[in-house]
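Catalogue entry: protein
Contents: sequence, fold tokens
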Amino acid sequence: MKKHRQKIHFITALGMILIGNIYSMQLQALPVPAHLASIKFMPPPPPPDRGATGSRGGAASRGCDANNQTVTALVPIYEQTVSQGKQESISITKVWGLTNLEHPYLLFFVPYKMSSIANMEFVLKDETNNKSQTLYRNFVTPPESPGIVKVDLPASVTPLQVGKMYRWFFKVKVKCNSQQPTTLDYVEGWVQRVNQDLALTEQLKQATPQQKVVLYAENGIWYDALMTLAELRFANPNDATLLTKWTSLLNSVGLDELANQPLVNCCKPSKNHKETPTNNIVSS
């Protein structure tokens, strides 16, 4: 009787092991849910002209309360080597992205507290055919605390035209203390509007906001992918899935150090300054 019970226990245990192994194999074979899949930006070929250089990370004003961080634009960069002659070549950095929108907004990381910021300014210029025309220039309200901020291109500004390259500047004047002069921390880059192909347009019509992020990223439309995901995060700041997607998207363009920075709901045009279209940017 005792041997019979031991045999039953052995068979039961063996069955549990086999069932466990089968279950484990089934789990491993299951596809990863779409909402957990990583988002990777697929960069389009950068513009061929040498004029589209820029600076994604500031190089001037470090210190104050910024922990050795600088203003940074949330935009892809492209490193290219350009020949200047038969034997000479130089390396240039292009800070550039695409949009389908007439009035996109841009995202920047500002590492300073409001008390350390003298002013912040955004400038947009049309530099077609080597001519420079400022389309929009305005001061914006600084954030109360460090974080990633968005700067809108108002509807009152002339809509971006398809195919044109537009140059933007984001400048933060920093005052470490009253005994020192202000210093400038700034970034600059480019935005280009493109025609959305019909196939993508149809896909977007049926897509959820999270699916739209993936579609934009896979088709190389950076600003729209980032903006769509940022809107989701602004509306759902505690959503862990959105944070995972945000981290994945930023990692794909080398901005992983900013993935955990908070999104700050600012910055509107400053009431103390009026919009001033002009052909000159503010001097440093």
User: Anything to note?
Assistant: Confidence is low (pLDDT under 50) at residues 1-36, 273-284.
